[in-house]
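Quick one: Reverse transcriptase domain-containing protein from Pinctada imbricata, structure tokens please.
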Amino acid sequence: MFHKLIRQQRGGQNGQIVELTVDQCTYKGRDIMNGWVSHFEKLSNPSDHLDAIKTSDAAHIQNVDADIDIIRDICNEAQGLPYSVSMEEIRDEVKKLNKGKAPDAYGITAEHIIYAGETVLEFLCTIFNAIFKLQTVLNVLKLGTLSPIFKKKGQKSNAKNYRGITVLPVIGKLLELIIRTHLRIILDPKQNPLQRGFTAGSSLQIVG
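--- reply ---
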């Protein structure tokens, strides 16, 4: 999907943009990169710009924060659940990584992890268990490669007419798969039985 979007983007543009407008500022030449940085930094920190976003967006952010607090409370109250990672878990989750995707900021792809062998998996197991113990995610796992994709409407020189696609570290994706499995152990038993959407092994049914 990522490569398809890039090919479409390149095919639809006649050369690179010569200037970029971000809010009321115009960037030209090499400064265009600084414009992209400014634009996407504002988008990634909406809480710092609540006066510049719609009320509905602010309400959505509050709802998300409330959901996070609920999940955190449920996890803190859980007893006797595994908070460590085993080699067997890592082997199982590695099989779920999607092949054929773009490399991350470190040049690593899913194939590197899939075919790396036991030594690398043991190293990752040590790192993941340290993350679980310290409850801190390393900053290197938060670094992504962001590409602006034109929405095919409006002026190409206006940053608002682009959406960003970020390729995150493959190792971080593996960690997410492991955490998701652990969360399901905790949250699934507490889920309302009427909640069927986005639930593994279930399908929507029409109530007559």
